[in-house]
Each structure stands twice: as C-alpha cells, then as structure tokens.
C-alpha cells in the first residue's frame, strides 16, 4: 500500500476507535434508497405448477421446508423452488413477503457479469480489453508495469492482483482512480483473490463504453424481457452502480436470473423465444475459469460459483442470498436470508443440494396427492422468521389479558396487561451510546450513522406496542405486534426509507425484572435489530430505571468477521479496535425516567397488507 493509503488507513482506525463513525467515510452519506410501495412496479410472474406434475412429491417439499425452518443459523426469509421452468413451491417467512425487494449483496456481481456479456455481444467490450486502455485518465504517469496486463477477464475471474478492496470504497471518493493507482500484490491471472472492486470496475467499464448507467443499459436488455419490474442499484459517490453489491430485487426475480442461465440465455418473450444472453457466454460463465493459487476447489466462472460435482452452480451474496442452479434436475432454487454464514458455502446451500441434486426426483409426473398438497400449504403458510427467538423462557409464562366483563350478548373489550399498564406512557432518557434502531451492518454499508437512541417512550394498545424513539434528532414511531403477529411501519433513518416488520414479547429475567424484547426485521435487507428493554429497580441499578441492550442478526461475530476481511486487525492496536468494535456493534445504554422532549415531526406510520 502506498504512503497515502497507509495514512488513510491509520485515520480510519483512529476514528473507528474513537467512535467517530459519521466521520469515517471520505464522502458524506447521501440517501439513495427509494421508498417501497406494495404493488408498485409489478413483475411478470413465472408460471406455477403442482409439484407432482413436475415429478416432485409435495410430501418431499413439505419435509424440505420443515428442515429449512429448523436449520440453525440460516434465518431464511424467502424460498422459491422451480422445476422445468415452473414454480412448484414457495415459502415466505413472515413478516417477509414476495412483493418486497431484498438486498442481494454479492449476488449483484452475477448481474454485473451478465451486463458485460451483453456488452461483449454488442461489440462494446472484449474480455481481452486492458484496463489501462479503458481508464487511461485514472492512472498516474508512473505506474506498476503489471497494471498494463490486467484485462476484463482477470476482473471477471477475480485474478486482477489489485490490493484496492471494499475498504477503499470508504476511504476514496473516486473508486476507479483508487483502483488504478493501487498496489498490485500479485501478477494478474495467477492468484484468485475475491474482491468486490473488480466487479465495480466491470460496471464502470460498461458505463464508460455504453454511455449509459448500468441500470439504463440493463433495462431493455434484461429487466424488461424477463418481466422484472422492481429493481434498485446503489451507486458510488460519482454515480456509477457499485457492481459488486448494492442491487435489490424481489425473490421471484432472483429465480428468473438463475432460470435464464439454466435455459442457456434464452427467455420466452411474448410467446417467442429470444436469446437474451449468448449461449457461448453462458457456457463459459458457468465453467471453472479461475484455476490456480487460492481458487475455490469447486471452481469459479464469470462471477459464478461452481457447487457440487454434478454441474451445479450458484450466484450468491453474503448472509444467504442465492440463486442455485441444478442442471441435472432442471431446477432453480432462489433464497433470501439473514444467515450467519458469510460466504458461499453454507447450511442452506448444502440442504438444497442434499434434497434436490441427487437421485430422489422423478423424471416423469407423479400422481397428485391432495393430502400432501394441504400439508405443504399448511407448512409454508405457518413459516415465521426467528420464531424461536421470542419463545417464552421457562417459568416466564405468558401474561393473560384482563378484560372488562360485559353483559351477555356484548363483546368483551380488550384491555392492557398489568405490565403494559405499568409502563404505559413512561418516558426514559438514555445515556450516550451507539445503540441505534438501524443494525450496525446497515449503518456501515451505507455510511448511515445516527449517533444512537437518546430517548424512548412506551405506549401500548391491545396487541400492539408503540415505541416513540428519538434518534438523530428525529422522532420515530415503531409499531410492534405483541401477540406473535407482526405489525408494519416505515422508518426514515438518515433519509433512507426502510420497511420494517416488528414483533415484541414480554418476559422475566433471572433477577425478576420485566423485559420487553423487540425484533425489528428490516424487510428489504438481511438484517434484524434485536432490542431488549430491561426495567430495573433504581437501588439495584445505581440509579438507572432502564437498561437497553442491542443485538442484531446476522450476529456481532459475523459483522466483525466481515470487517476483518478487508481490514488488518492484528497486534495491540488491532485488538483495541476490535474491542471498540464490539462495543459499537452490540452496545447497551442505561435509561432514566424523564419527560418527553420536544421532537421533530415523526415519521409517518405505514401498515401495508400482510
């Protein structure tokens, strides 16, 4: 790394240690994420069929969903299963739903590579094109001779040898310039080194050669032919799509990407088959192209991972975003999740392979079993996200609701529980901490740091808990369901609009304190914020009335591993930063009874259909 890079890294670690999170990035946070409205920009649905008509038993699929729901650490959100081009089963873990777009993280890379394939077909690019020819204006007059060797092919196969990685995107405003002036640590083409900035440079190359944004380029070539109606791709500070991450699509549209490759690049458009992507490109993309030092043992194509020994491959993103293609069985399985597994090989992928990439499936149709159909429908309808996290602890019990007894013939009017009445309208001022409504991973990915919660007020309705939270100088209203059924709301944090499904549950801790545990599922992301409000006795808490603990899924450990993959946290200074990070990612705050302070206008509540 050059001297300037070392100075930037030292400054980054110093600000991280001090907790100056809003000052870490080289450029200010600019809101990009559009608000999501159910039913807007509809996508063209894939055809549906009964499982047996496509040679799969509904009992078998019911068993798969049962096992998936109990798969430790996988935290699935949505799953679609296709065979012979038709959806034969799907499950959405409430509060997640099929209409909500989901962040794909590195699954975005395959879409970037697809755009490159289209640009190659049109003569805009060649895989042998050199970066020094495309981005000559981003170079210094004196540069490493190895830079002259790097081609688009090296970027596609993660063999560029460039040091500039994801952290560089935080420290530098001009990403292409940072990439072209970075240290080259390996000879291009020799060593596999997974680096999202390779994908960014591919996106930038398509943008530069086409004269369009990547979204504009893909709209008539990919999105419209496949009937993908809802999409959003985040951009870098200079307005170029991030390439290696930042794309959001609906679960069914993820399945369409896998089906496109399974069909050799063809798609049925208005009753006629059209070659969306050259078959030769697809054939090369799904073959191992990255043999050599450090390459995955199963192989890596053009931003596509090989999986298993039967010709399967997958597009994937961190925390369990998958389009898994199984050519032998003519199947595609699309998954969104908040999995603990950071990288391509994980429990969800292995489960899919075990169920669908063997000899268990029939090549011909099976006799329909209506009992099996009903069992599968019951199982998929009962799926709940993190259903075990809010399960009552042994001995805590579930508090009964008190009702007003009315004369026979009149409905009983529900009232609050004793605990809800006890804390109704209570307001607590919180000491300074980094505990935010927004999970730390989302804050870090978007540079959207608010400084943490400063005040919380509790209000209760039958079956509902309303948290009025002051954070970042704004009042946020968080509505959570208390009867196991989620409530929905919108949160606008730092100008970014998030759709949230929330549930809350009372419990009692080992010291006999009342505990209100709240789960906030950020439905367009893999992330869930977990907040525990522990109501204390002043004498036992050094004068505090409330203790607030923050956690998130994917977990703190995973977030640390994610950052540690791009930042060297070794030695004494590294250990100090690591300790500091744990406090930032999993903070806690003491609260004191107070009065509701004057707030800015609250975020509007929104409760879309479930």
Keywords:
610 residues, 6-stranded antiparallel sheet, 17 helices, 23 strands, disordered C terminus
- Using the alpha-carbon principal axes, give the shape: globular
Task: Outline the low-pLDDT stretches.
Answer: 392-408, 600-610
Average pLDDT works out at 87
Q: Structural class, from secondary structure content?
A: alpha+beta
| Alpha-carbon Rg, integer | 26 Å
As laid out across the biggest beta sheet, the strand order is 17-16-15-14-23-22-21-20-19-18
Structural commentary:
The chain is of the alpha+beta class. It has helices at 3-18, 58-69, 108-121, 131-134, 152-156, 168-171, 175-180, 196-210, 214-226, 251-262, 279-285, 347-356, 370-381, 418-423, 440-446, 556-564, 571-585; strands at 76-83, 86-92, 102-103, 231-233, 247-249, 266-269, 272-275, 305-307, 312-317, 321-326, 331-337, 403-404, 413-414, 427-430, 453-461, 464-471, 474-481, 487-493, 496-508, 514-522, 528-535, 546-553, 588-593. The strands form five sheets. It has a ten-stranded antiparallel beta sheet. Strands 2-1-11-10-9-8 form a six-stranded antiparallel beta sheet, with helices on both faces. A hairpin with a 4-residue loop joins β10 (321-326) and β11 (331-337). α2 packs parallel to α13 (370-381), α3 runs parallel beside α8 and α16 (556-564) runs antiparallel to α17. Mean pLDDT is 87; it is low at 392-408 and 600-610.
């Amino acid at each position: 790394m050059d001297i300037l890079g070392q100075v930037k890294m030292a400054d980054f670690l110093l600000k991280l240690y001090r907790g100056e999170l809003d000052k870490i990035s080289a450029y200010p946070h600019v809101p990009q994420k559009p608000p999501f409205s159910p039913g807007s920009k509809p996508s063209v649905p894939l055809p549906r069929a009964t499982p047996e008509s496509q040679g799969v038993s509904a009992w078998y699929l019911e068993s798969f969903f049962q096992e998936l729901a109990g798969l430790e650490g996988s935290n699935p959100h949505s799953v679609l299963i296709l065979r012979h081009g038709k959806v034969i089963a799907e499950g959405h873990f409430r509060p997640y739903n099929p209409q909500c777009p989901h962040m794909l993280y590195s699954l975005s890379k395959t879409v970037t590579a697809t755009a490159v394939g289209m640009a190659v077909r049109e003569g805009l690019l060649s895989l042998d094109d050199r970066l020094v020819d495309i981005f000559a204006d981003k170079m210094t007059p004196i540069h490493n001779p190895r830079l002259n060797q790097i081609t688009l092919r090296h970027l596609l196969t993660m063999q560029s040898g460039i040091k500039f990685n994801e952290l560089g995107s935080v420290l530098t405003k001009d990403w292409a310039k940072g990439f072209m002036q970075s240290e080259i640590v390996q000879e291009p083409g020799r060593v596999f080194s997974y680096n999202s900035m390779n994908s960014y440079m591919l996106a930038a190359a398509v943008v530069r050669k086409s004269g369009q944004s990547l979204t504009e380029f893909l709209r008539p070539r990919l999105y419209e032919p496949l009937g993908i109606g809802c999409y959003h791709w985040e951009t870098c500070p200079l307005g170029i799509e991030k390439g290696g991450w930042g794309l959001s699509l609906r679960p069914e549209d993820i399945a369409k990407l896998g089906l496109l490759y399974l069909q050799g690049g063809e798609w049925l458009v208005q009753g006629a088959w059209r070659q969306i992507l050259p078959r030769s490109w697809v054939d090369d993309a799904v073959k191992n192209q990255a043999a050599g030092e450090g390459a995955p043992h199963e192989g890596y194509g053009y931003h596509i991972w090989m999986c298993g020994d039967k010709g399967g491959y997958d597009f994937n993103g961190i925390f369990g975003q998958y389009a898994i293609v199984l050519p032998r069985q003519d199947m595609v399985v699309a998954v969104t999740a908040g999995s603990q597994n950071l990288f391509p090989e994980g429990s969800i992928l292995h489960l899919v392979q075990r169920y669908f990439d063997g000899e268990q499936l029939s090549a011909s149709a099976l006799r329909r079993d209506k009992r099996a159909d009903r069992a599968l429908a019951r199982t998929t309808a009962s799926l709940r996200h993190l259903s075990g996290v809010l399960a009552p602890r042994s001995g805590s019990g579930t508090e009964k609701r008190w009702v007003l007894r009315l004369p026979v013939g009149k409905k009983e009017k529900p009232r609050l529980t004793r605990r809800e009445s006890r804390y109704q309208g209570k307001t607590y001022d919180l000491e300074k901490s980094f505990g935010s409504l927004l999970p730390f991973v989302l804050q870090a990915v978007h540079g959207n740091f608010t400084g943490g919660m400063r005040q919380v007020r509790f209000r209760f309705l039958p079956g509902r808990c309303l948290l009025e939270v002051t954070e970042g100088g704004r009042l946020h209203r968080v509505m959570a369901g208390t009867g196991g059924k989620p409530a929905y709301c919108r949160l606008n944090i730092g100008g970014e609009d998030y759709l949230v499904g929330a549930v809350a549950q009372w419990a009692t801790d080992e010291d006999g304190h009342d505990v209100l545990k709240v789960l906030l599922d950020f439905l367009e992301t893999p992330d869930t914020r977990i907040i525990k409000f522990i109501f204390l006795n002043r004498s036992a808490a050094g004068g505090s009335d409330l203790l607030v603990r923050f956690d998130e899924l994917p977990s703190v450990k995973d977030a640390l591993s994610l950052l540690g993959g791009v930042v060297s946290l070794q030695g004494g200074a590294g250990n100090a930063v690591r300790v500091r990070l744990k406090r930032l990612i999993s903070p806690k705050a003491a609260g004191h009874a107070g009065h509701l302070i004057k707030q800015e206008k609250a975020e509007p509540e929104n409760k879309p259909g479930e």
